[in-house]
C-alpha cells in the first residue's frame, strides 16, 4: 500500500517538475533572468532574515505577534495574539487588523510549523513583484534590457529590502497584489484585475484606501488619455459600461469592507476607536519637515527621481504619503520600517512612465544603474554605512554565544508558560502561554527568559520593562537561575538546583566602540556599555591616562546580574616609578544623595613595586548575595603617572 502511494507521489512530483520546466522555457531570455533574480533574492533574503531570527534580532512586535496568530489559529484559538497581558491590549489580532489573507497562508505554515516558514514566504512575496514590474516596463518602453533594469531596481530598492529585513509584516504583501493590479489594468484583463484588487483588500483593512485611490488613478488616467490621445486604454475600450461598473463596484466594496472592519475592531477593542475623526487628525503634526523631505528623497533616489516625471502613477500612493507626511509617528516616515513597501510599486511604475516620456539613450540606462547601485550601498540593509547606526542593521554572524543561547531556549518544555524579553519572545511564541508583560489573573510563569546584556531588558516594553517584571517575580516568588548563556538567563519557578552555565556572564570595555565617529542607536542607552570621558585618550589598543588626569577614567555598564561570584580584570602599564596609590578599581551600585553607594569590592593599585613599561594584570573578586539591579564598575586615576589601560573585563566566576 505504502509502496503504491510512494510511486504515485513520485509520479506527481515528476509531473509538476516537468510542467514547471516547460513553463519556464516558454519565457523570453530576459524574463528568465528576472525569474532567476527573484529566486536568488528569495534564497538570499530568506537566509539572512532567518539568520537574524536565529541571532535574536527579531522582535515580539511584529514577528512574535504573527507567530502567535498562526500557532494559536492552528491550535483552535482563532487569531489569538496578546504579547502584552494587560487590559489595554486586545485578546485577538482581529482587533488590530482584519486580514483574511492570513488564512490563505495558514496551510503553508501548517506544513512546516516554524518561524523560518513565515520569513521565507515573506521573501518570496516581496521578490515576485519584480516579474510584473518587468512586464509593465516592457509594455511601457518596449525595451527588454531597460525593463530588466527596473525589475532589478525594484528588488534592490530600500523600500523592498528594509521591509524584508525587519521581521514579518502584512505590508510585505501589498507590492505583490498592487503590481498584479497595475499589470492587469494595463493589459485590460478585467477579471484578473478584479481578483487582484480583492486580494489586495484582503491583506488588511487599510488596503481599502489603496484600492479606492487606484480606482481614482484609473479614472484620472482615462481622462488624461482621452484628452491627449483621443482614446481610452484597453481596459476601457470596447465595453465602457462594464469597465466603469467594475470600478464603481470595487469602490463600493472597498468602502463597505473598511467600515465593517472598523466596526469589528472597535467592538473587539473599544479603546482604539481610531475611526473618530478627532482622534485621527488630532495626531497629525507638521514637525520634522526636513526629516520627512529626506525620506521622500531616499525613496525617489534609486530610480533617479524619474517618479516625479509621471506623478499620475503616484495616485495610489497618496493615502500613505498623506499619513507619512502629516503624522508624528516616526516609523511612517522612516525608511528602515515596513511601511515604505506600501508605495514601492507606485514609485517604480511612475519611474517607468517617467522614463518612457523621455528620449531613450544608453546614457539614461547607465544613469539609472548608477543610482540603483548607489542606493544599494548607501541606504539599504546591505550598506556598511547603515550598519554603523544600529547593531540590528548589520548582517548577523552566528557565533558560539548565539549557538549556546539557542541551546538554552531548547531547554524550555513545550507546554511551559513563559515570560520573555522582546527579542527572545519570537523564539517562545509558538506555545499556549507566552507574554512580554504577565497578566495579573494568571499564575506566575514557569520560566522567565531575559538577556541582561541587551538594552531591551531595561527599556522594553515601554509601559513596563521586563526588568521590572523580573524583580517583581523574584521578590514575590521562589525563582532559581536555571540556565545562563552569557547575558541570556532563564529562571525557573521553584528551582533549587545548580545553574547550567553554558557561558558565564562577561563583557569588556571595547576600544573599537569608543573610536566610532557614528554613534549607534544602542549607545543612547547607558545600560550594557562602558563610558570614558572626553579627556581620556583612546590610543589604538589602550586608554591613555595622563599624569595630570584625576577622576574616573571609565564607568559602567549598569547591568543587572544574578547572585554569584564575579571578577574584574584590568591590564595596565605605567611609564615611570612612583610611590603610593595610582588608581582605584571599584564595583558598586550608585544611589543618588543623600544615600551612600552600595560597594561590593574595591582595590587600590600602588606603584611601589611597578616597573615602568611592564604590563601588569590586577583582579578584583567579589560575591553578590542577591540579584543586583545596576552594577557599576569604575576605574579612578589619582593623577601621579601616565597610565595605559589595555583591558577592562568583567566576568562571572561561579
Notes on the structure:
Helix 10 (190-203) packs parallel to helix 12. The model is unreliable at 275-282 (pLDDT under 50). This protein is globular. 44% of the residues lie in helices and 16% in strands. Strand 4 and strand 5 (488-493) form a beta hairpin. It has 654 residues and is α+β, with helices and mostly antiparallel strands.
Level of helix content? 40-55%
Unreliable spans are 275-282
Largest sheet: 6 strands, mixed
- Indicate the overall shape: globular
* Rg of Cα set: 29 Å
The secondary structure category is alpha+beta
List the helices and strands and how they pair.
Blueprint: H1 2-25, H2 29-54, H3 60-74, H4 101-111, H5 115-127, H6 129-141, H7 144-155, H8 158-165, H9 174-187, H10 190-203, H11 207-229, H12 240-268, H13 277-281, H14 289-300, H15 318-326, H16 344-356, H17 362-378, H18 384-387, H19 400-409, E1 418-420, E2 434-435, E3 447-451, H20 456-459, H21 466-476, E4 479-485, E5 488-493, E6 500-503, E7 506-508, H22 511-514, E8 537-539, E9 542-545, E10 551-554, E11 557-561, E12 564-574, E13 581-589, E14 598-606, E15 616-624, E16 628-637, E17 643-652
Parallel strand pairs: 1-2, 1-3, 4-6
Antiparallel strand pairs: 3-5, 4-5, 7-17, 8-9, 9-17, 10-16, 11-16, 12-15, 12-17, 13-14, 13-16
